[in-house]
Amino acid sequence: MRSRPRRHSMKPLMNRARRKPRRMPLVLRFAKGSVHGDIMIAVILHAIFAALIVYIDDFTPYTPHLPGSITSSLSIVVGLLLVFRNQSSYARFWSGQENLTTICTNIRNLTRTFLTCSYATNKPEPSEAERAETETAVYALLAVVYAVKNTLQWEWEHSVGAPDLEDSGSGSLKPELRALLGPQMSETHEFEGLGLPIQLTMSIEAYIKRSHDRGWFHSPQASQLSVQLNTMVAAFGTMETIRLTPIPVAYLIHTRQVLALYGGVLPFAFVESLQWWTVVIVSLITFTLYGIEAIAYQLEEPFGWDKADIKMDDVVEDLRIEVGVLLKEWQAGAPMFGRQEN
Question: Any stretches that span the bilayer, and where are they (predicted)?
Answer without folding.
Answer: 66-84, 249-270, 276-297
